[in-house]
Structure formats: structure tokens, C-alpha cells
Specification:
By secondary structure, the protein is mainly α. The protein has one domain. The protein has a two-stranded antiparallel sheet with strand order 1-2. A two-stranded antiparallel ribbon has the order 3-4. A hairpin with an 8-residue loop joins strand 1 and strand 2. Helix 1 runs antiparallel to helix 3, helix 3 packs across helix 5 and helix 7 packs antiparallel against helix 8. The longest helix has about 50 residues. The chain starts with a helix and ends with a helix.
């Protein structure tokens, strides 16, 4: 599981490194500032806690620039510029990877120590073990199918990675990495590769039947038109699965944060102590819902990934 996590984290960070940065300068304190978009968009600045009340107990730190950049030639769209300089969401991905490494490695070592003493795990190690066993035995293996142990490390890594990124997005001064389409698309593309490779290994030459529809139980005069009509549908369905994974996670995380920040923004819009309790209460309720959504979206992404892998592996039956 450790090796699967490290490989996934490095790949995700490398793929998400060229996220487009949105340059912005600190707004003057005398003007109204946008409190919604900075939390859900990328940029070249980080907000850190500060004791200076005049600046809202926050200070902006400019991230380093000037890292290597290059152009990728595209046939139709022209050159695509890639800048490897870190952005806010890339830093958040680093934080997620470092935090997960520390938590999971320490939990594994604590579990080993308790097991050597003949005792069950407790505390954080016990909680991590319960989550791992539930996801493995109740979600991943039943959907992936027979001999699916090899997919458990990857799918568990996806679950914990998305869950940690979602939860960090609820903390002040942090940002929601899973609220960026580039991050969710990277996760979906990696899952798409795992799905297709699993299908190739399980089906062998029969993998072509997942692309070209050829009904063997029909007369030849019916096979040809059915193949012409349904083969494009089969091909498109391969790409709609990762597209749905990326859009679902991105949309849910972005929508929840916009609602919370918009409700809080009502307090500053009306500037009234009479109006303030209502949007504050609604914002607290949405934040509690967002806490559930953070777990739910990580669970759904892992569940659907398991289902898609199981479908392609069992498509020859």
C-alpha cells in the first residue's frame, strides 16, 4: 500500500504541476475584495495566518517563479505552454502527499508494534485499519471481482488522497485542490489507464470486443449495421466514464464552497447585526454538510472506479 501511495502521489503531482496560474495582486484595504474566488481558484500566492488585524489576520506569500517551462506542439490547437513553477494548488497537493505519508506510515508502524505484542491496534491506527478493511472488503473486492487484490493499493490510495484533499479544503487559509478540474481530470485519467490496462490483461485479444461491437448471435446482415451503429457508442462510453469521474468530484467540491462563501458574503453585503445570524447559521449547516460530502465524494470516486474496473474485467462473460 505504501508503494502504491507514493507512486500515485508522485504521478498526480507531476501531472498537476502545470496548472494554469492566475496572477493577482493584493487588493487595497480600502476597496471591497473578492472572498469567494481565491478559495476555489489557482494562483501564484498563498494566504498564511498573520497577527495583523488590519490585513484580516492573513498575509500573502508569493510563490517562486522562473522554473523550467516548455511548449508542447498540438496538431490543431497549436503550441501548449507548460510552466512547472509551483502554484497554490500544487502546494496543496504537496501538503496532501506529505500529510498522508506521515499519517499512513505512522499508523502502519503503530499497527506493527501492537501486533508484535499480540494486541489489536488502537487510536489512529485502529481507525485507519477500520477504514482500510471496510473499503477493501465491502467496496473494492466485491466490485473489482476475482483476483482483484492487485487493485486494492491503487484504489485505497485514491480514496485517502481525495478524502485528505477534500478535508483540507474546509480549513481556513487552505485551498480545495479537488475543486480544480485539472486535478480531478488527472485522477480520472490515471483511473482510465488502470481500467483499460486491467481490461487488456483480463481479456487478451478479446479486448477489441470492448471497442468494436460485433454480435456473434445475429445473422451477418444484422451484424454489420449493428456494428456500424453501436461501435462508436462503445468507444465513446470508454471516455464518458473518466469524464463523469472528473466532473462529479470537481462540481461537488466547487459548488459546496461557493455556497458557503456566498452565505458568509451576505454578512458583509448587508453590514447588519440583525441579518448576520441567518446567513451564519446557514453557512454552519452547509459546512457540516460539506464535511459529509468530503467523505462521500471520496467514497463515490473509489466505488465507481472499482465498478468500472470490474465491468471491463468481466465483460467477456
Amino acid at each position: 500500500m505504501k508503494s502504491g501511495f507514493l507512486a500515485f502521489a508522485l504521478a498526480a503531482l507531476a501531472a498537476a504541476a502545470p496548472l494554469a496560474a492566475q496572477e493577482h495582486a493584493p487588493a487595497p484595504t480600502a476597496e471591497k475584495t473578492d472572498i469567494i474566488t481565491p478559495h476555489i481558484t489557482d494562483g501564484k500566492h498563498l494566504e498564511l495566518p498573520s497577527l495583523n488585524a488590519a490585513h484580516g489576520f492573513a498575509k500573502e506569500v508569493t510563490l517562486p517563479s522562473g522554473w523550467p517551462s516548455f511548449d508542447i506542439p498540438l496538431p490543431v490547437l497549436g503550441p501548449f505552454h507548460v510552466d512547472t513553477s509551483p502554484t497554490k494548488l500544487v502546494v496543496m497537493l504537496w501538503v496532501v502527499a506529505a500529510l498522508l505519508t506521515a499519517i499512513l506510515v505512522s499508523a502502519a508502524r503503530a499497527h506493527q508494534r501492537r501486533a508484535a505484542q499480540g494486541l489489536p491496534p488502537k487510536g489512529l491506527a485502529g481507525g485507519i485499519e477500520a477504514m482500510v478493511l471496510y473499503m477493501r472488503n465491502e467496496v473494492i473486492l466485491p466490485n473489482v471481482g476475482h483476483h482483484g487484490e492487485g487493485f486494492v493499493p491503487y484504489l485505497l490510495t485514491i480514496f485517502f488522497f481525495i478524502l485528505t484533499a477534500n478535508l483540507l479544503g474546509l480549513i481556513p487559509y487552505m485551498a480545495t485542490a479537488t475543486g480544480n478540474i485539472a486535478v480531478t481530470a488527472t485522477l480520472a485519467i490515471m483511473t482510465f489507464i488502470v481500467i483499460e490496462v486491467a481490461g487488456m490483461r483480463a481479456l487478451g485479444k478479446g479486448y477489441i470486443n470492448t471497442i468494436i461491437f460485433w454480435p456473434h448471435d445475429m445473422p451477418l446482415m444484422m451484424r454489420i449495421p449493428m456494428s456500424i451503429i453501436l461501435s462508436p457508442v462503445e468507444l465513446i462510453s470508454k471516455f464518458t466514464k473518466p469524464f463523469a469521474l472528473a466532473i462529479r468530484l470537481f462540481a461537488n467540491m466547487t459548488a459546496g464552497h461557493i455556497v458557503v462563501l456566498a452565505l458568509i458574503g451576505l454578512i458583509f453585503t448587508f453590514q447588519s447585526y440583525v441579518v448576520a445570524p441567518a446567513p451564519l447559521a446557514m453557512a454552519v449547516a452547509i459546512m457540516l454538510l460539506e464535511l459529509m460530502v468530503a467523505f462521500l465524494q471520496a467514497f463515490i470516486f473509489t466505488l465507481l472506479s472499482s465498478v468500472f474496473i470490474g465491468l471491463v474485467r468481466e465483460s467477456h462473460h
